């Protein structure tokens, strides 16, 4: 814990003044009179992302079909070029990363592909996973004639919040094909030990895949060096690329040349794609996992968004280095903000509990604040202009997104939460029905 945190609002203002990333917030459309701390669900629009989208629309207007070859970058290679730029954020080579499809579709194609080539027959997941991951893995098992209830090994949580690495390791056996886990748990915000899990899997010839949806853009990764086999992520959370934006994926180069489970012409070897052969030759790199035509309009904002990350980096002429140091600076600020948030919850909210690991090494970019009335508390917060989300049964997720959230925002959010809880303001709200929260 940063020893010099103080409880008062003046302290937050002082921290904002000396925050080297504070100026980046000006580039985001931060709703007036609101505290937006839901960037782990949907990141805010930046001017950069908006301009990149506008540019794509202009190219469509001005170039029409010629955009595939004459746009900048040409749309034909849009997925690969954006993949090149994303690679430093996940610690991969440019060839190992591409943007394509949605996260769920990428789980389908990667799990399908690697299940086919792996030795074993079961897949290890954990019980705190984001549901779509299980839906997709189960569907792939069913399609391969396996019974998901038998073939899915679900690591249990000891405390309902976190997953122990040793429990993951203990769940792997001689019949395990793949271990597929999130880097950061969507509810508690625990950061899993990607390196240890991958090493333990490889010791037993098991493939290791990760869903980085809750870490990409907040936590740096080192996928190639660690030797992770494959990974997926979405771009609308910390990467701020917009609702339903194109997703990303990584495949380690030692697996290049496999035929993807879900093949499509956009993953064909680029040089010969337009020869229109009825048989499929996969691209020689991660590009093979694209399926249909790249959705340029849902990819363009990511190009602008990455400029903001580059500007968080130390000035240099090398874009890769800029993005690498950018994500390090983002992580540094993110850890300080979440630590400060935890400090304030401990100091000022005796009726709430922190469900997120306190150890920085085990923490992603958001904090789970637990309260028995979490649903109604989150409704009362929204009425006060604090945009959070609720995750059942008892979690209010608060995400200080480091590119646009400051210390004073964190202080204000905790102050609003204190008033809601202390005055039992949530009593005025209805119990939970269904719907999006
Ligand atoms: C947000 C999220 C997804 C979303 O998948 P989509 O296909 O974009 O709907 C998947 N997995 C995890 C862990 C997530 O956090």
UniProtKB/TrEMBL annotation:
It catalyses: 3-hydroxy-L-kynurenine + H2O = 3-hydroxyanthranilate + L-alanine + H(+); L-kynurenine + H2O = anthranilate + L-alanine + H(+). Its cofactor is pyridoxal 5'-phosphate. InterPro entries: Kynureninase, PyrdxlP-dep_Trfase, PyrdxlP-dep_Trfase_major, PyrdxlP-dep_Trfase_small. GO terms for molecular function: kynureninase activity. Pathway: Amino-acid degradation; L-kynurenine degradation; L-alanine and anthranilate from L-kynurenine: step 1/1; Cofactor biosynthesis; NAD(+) biosynthesis; quinolinate from L-kynurenine: step 2/3. Keywords: Hydrolase, Pyridine nucleotide biosynthesis, Pyridoxal phosphate. The keyword Cytoplasm does not apply. Belongs to the kynureninase family. This is Kynureninase.
């Amino acid at each position: 814990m940063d020893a010099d945190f103080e409880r008062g609002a003046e302290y937050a203002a002082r921290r904002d003044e000396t925050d080297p990333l504070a100026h980046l917030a000006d580039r985001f459309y931060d709703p007036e009179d609101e505290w937006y701390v839901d960037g782990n669900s949907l990141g805010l629009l930046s001017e950069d992302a908006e301009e990149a989208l506008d540019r794509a629309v202009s190219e469509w207007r001005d170039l029409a079909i010629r955009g595939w070859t004459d746009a900048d970058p040409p749309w034909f290679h849009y997925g690969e070029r954006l993949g090149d730029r994303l690679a430093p954020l996940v610690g991969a080579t440019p060839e190992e990363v591409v943007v394509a499809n949605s996260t769920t579709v990428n789980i389908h194609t990667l799990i399908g592909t690697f299940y086919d080539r792996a030795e074993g027959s079961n897949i290890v997941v954990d019980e705190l996973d984001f549901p779509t991951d299980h839906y997709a893995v189960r569907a792939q098992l069913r399609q391969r004639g396996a019974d998901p209830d038998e073939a899915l090994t679900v690591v249990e949580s000891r405390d309902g919040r976190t997953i122990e690495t040793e429990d993951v390791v203990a769940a792997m056996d001689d019949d395990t094909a793949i271990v597929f886990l999130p880097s950061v748990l969507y509810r508690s915000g625990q950061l899993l030990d990607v390196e240890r899990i991958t090493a333990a899997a490889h010791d037993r010839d098991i493939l290791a895949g990760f869903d980085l949806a809750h870490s990409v853009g907040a936590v740096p990764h080192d996928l190639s060096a660690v030797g992770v086999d494959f990974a997926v992520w979405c771009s609308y959370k910390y990467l701020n690329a917009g609702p339903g934006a194109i997703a990303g994926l990584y495949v380690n180069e030692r697996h290049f040349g496999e035929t993807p489970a879900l093949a499509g012409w956009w993953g064909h070897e680029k040089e010969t794609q337009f020869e229109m052969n009825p048989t499929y030759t996969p691209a020689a790199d991660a590009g093979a996992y694209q399926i249909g035509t790249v959705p340029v309009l849902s990819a363009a904002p990511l190009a602008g968004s990455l400029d903001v990350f580059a500007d968080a980096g130390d000035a240099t002429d090398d874009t890769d280095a800029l993005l690498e140091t950018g994500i390090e600076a983002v992580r540094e600020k993110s850890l300080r903000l979440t630590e400060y948030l935890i400090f304030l919850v401990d100091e000022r909210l005796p009726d709430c509990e922190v469900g997120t690991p306190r150890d920085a090494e085990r923490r992603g970019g958001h904090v789970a604040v637990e309260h028995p009335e979490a649903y109604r508390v989150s409704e009362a917060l929204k009425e006060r202009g604090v945009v959070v989300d609720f995750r059942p049964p008892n979690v209010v997720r608060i995400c200080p997104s480091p590119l646009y959230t400051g210390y004073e925002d964190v202080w204000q959010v905790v102050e609003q939460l204190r008033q809601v809880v202390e005055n039992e303001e949530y009593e005025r709200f209805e119990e939970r029905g269904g719907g999006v929260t």
